[in-house]
Amino acid sequence: MERSNFRVLITLGIALLLLATVGYLFYANREHQIRIPEAELQQRFERRLPLTKTYLKFFDVTLENPRVDLLEETGRISAGMDVQVQIRTPGKTRSYGGTVDVAGLVRYESASGRFFLFEPQIERLELGDLKDPTLERVRAVTQKALEEYFSIQPLYELKPGDIRQRAARMVLRNVEIEDEELVITLGL
User: Fold this and answer.
1) Where are the transmembrane segments (predicted)?
2) What is the CATH number of the domain that holds 51?
3) pTM of the predicted protein model
């Protein structure tokens, strides 16, 4: 009787090992491509703004009205938005409005299945008649606000219920911009 149970366990173990091997071989060289249109990225940003935050107790920065541009020639994502800055000093509050344009690359966190704009860099900042050295301080504060925003607001999240996306969650193979779409290739 014991010998019979032992054979059943060995057979079951071999069957599970074969099933795991077949599953691995099936998915090992498979790629899963996700195409995110520029308009969808635009909608995602619009849902998360406006956002106002205070920095160094003197600066209130508000980000709103986002614009997204996928730059096929450089493979970067450009994001522009309106920015409002209030500078509070003793007895006086000054407000400046304008625009900021940033660009960055895509970073993938496999544990969460989320994609972020990585290392966003200000390419252009216009705030009315604001001049140096105050403009440089405001630039630094705005850069900080953008880095914080893009570090917690994903560009895209893999759908947890999608078995193909869950299986492909392990490795980011490629990110490119093609025909006004962000094209993400994942695989095992």
Assistant:
1) 6-27
2) 3.15.10.40
3) 0.70
